[in-house]
Design a protein that fits this description.
Layout: H1 2-5, H2 19-29, E1 36-40, H3 47-59, H4 74-81, E2 87-91, H5 98-108, E3 118-123, H6 130-141, E4 147-153, H7 161-164, E5 168-171, H8 177-190, H9 197-206, H10 211-224, H11 228-232, H12 237-248, H13 252-264, H14 269-287, H15 299-309, H16 314-331, H17 339-350
Parallel strand pairs: 1-4, 1-5, 2-3, 3-4
């Protein structure tokens, strides 16, 4: 799997900007790491990967001057290969009971076998039972000096405040489209594969800010030889330009035919509408002169959208956004997926 093959092995490999990686490097550089951390954020944003890199940093034999790992010493290699005795990874979804945490408490007293520190990564920590959390709290109150806890969660609100107050909490943000696109470009280069920037951007948007989802989608495209449009359910920017032109011209027939042709091609109309909304949002920024640093498209597409914005007022773009936002919310519950969009088109073209 690409997300394993191209998983960052050093802090320097983690997509920038990344405040969490920088903060952790500074702690390692200043020799002041915490004994317990909580990493929270959406799935696929690098929590477990960062936890493993931090585990390396706590045990690396040849740290560089900035606090990053060498990725070459015995400890780094062992962690990379998954056979480092002093890195214990626990899946709280399947080891959530008090007996599992009691077993951890008994073993944590033992000194590290081969490394400098014992590191416990507890994934999906919010899945622990109340009793298990209470048992974990006892350990966090007086942890052995040779141990470090890294608790990873997608649902920070389910982690008790008593746990959070004894940890340094780092919040992971969804990756931006440019961050994901840069990563996908690097993977394509390694795989000797050429995809257009537009296709890479579609994959980045479809992954909803998750590196892992983006890597998996890219692998499906490369190894399965499938088109990005069919996989993501999105159309090209040119498609949306043509469709919006139909709306501006109040050509309901061609606009409805366009939607039905899109549906017949097997596209997910809900995903297609989300991308249309994103296109209209960018068009709104351009037509109101507020696109600087906000609109994330290529120069060629930006020029195309600027020309289209000259044909349409900001008020009309707002109208389109409101109408299609409502239609998009109705698609999943509609017996006929095209119907909410068809009604929306008739209303927009009739105004």
């Amino acid at each position: 799997m690409f997300y394993r093959k191209y998983r960052p092995q050093k802090f320097a490999d983690i997509s920038k900007p990344n405040e969490v990686a920088e903060a952790l490097m500074n702690q390692i550089k200043n020799k002041k790491p915490a004994q317990a951390y909580v990493f929270s954020g959406p799935r696929g944003t690098g929590k477990t990967t960062t936890a493993r890199v931090l585990s390396k940093a706590l045990n690396c034999e040849h740290l560089d001057k900035d606090g990053d790992v060498c990725d070459k010493c015995a400890s780094c290699e062992a962690i990379k290969n998954g056979n480092f005795l002093d890195l214990i990874e626990i899946d709280a979804a399947s080891n959530r009971g008090i007996d599992d945490i009691r077993d951890l408490r008994d073993k944590i007293k033992l000194a590290p076998s081969v490394g400098k520190r014992k590191v416990y990564i507890i994934d999906e920590v919010h899945m622990l039972t109340t009793e298990a959390f209470n048992a974990l709290l006892k350990t966090l109150e007086e942890p052995p000096r040779h141990a470090t806890f890294i608790l990873c969660t997608t649902e920070l609100h389910k982690v008790p405040d008593t746990i959070k107050s004894r940890c340094q909490v780092f919040k992971f943000k969804r990756a931006t489209v440019p961050q994901i696109t840069i990563r996908l470009e690097k993977i394509c280069k390694e795989e000797n594969c050429e995809l257009s920037k537009d296709d890479l951007r579609k994959i980045a948007v479809a992954s909803s800010g998750g590196f892992r989802d983006a890597d998996t989608l890219l692998q499906q495209v490369i190894e399965g030889n499938v088109s990005v449009d069919s996989l993501t359910g999105m159309g090209s920017v040119g498609d949306y330009t043509i469709f919006v032109d139909y709306l501006v011209e109040k050509d309901a027939y061609r606009a409805i035919k366009f939607v039905n042709d899109t549906y017949q091609e097997g596209r997910d109309l809900y995903v297609w509408t989300l991308d249309l909304l994103n296109y209209l949002r960018n068009l709104l920024f351009i037509s109101s002169g507020a696109n600087e640093g906000v609109v994330d498209v290529s120069d060629e597409v930006l020029e195309l959208m600027k020309r289209q914005s000259n044909k349409i007022s900001s008020q009309n773009v707002v109208l389109y956004l409101e109408k299609f936002l409502k239609a998009g919310n109705l698609i999943k519950s509609s017996a006929i997926p095209q119907l909410p969009l068809e009604i929306c088109i008739v209303e927009v073209c009739g105004d």
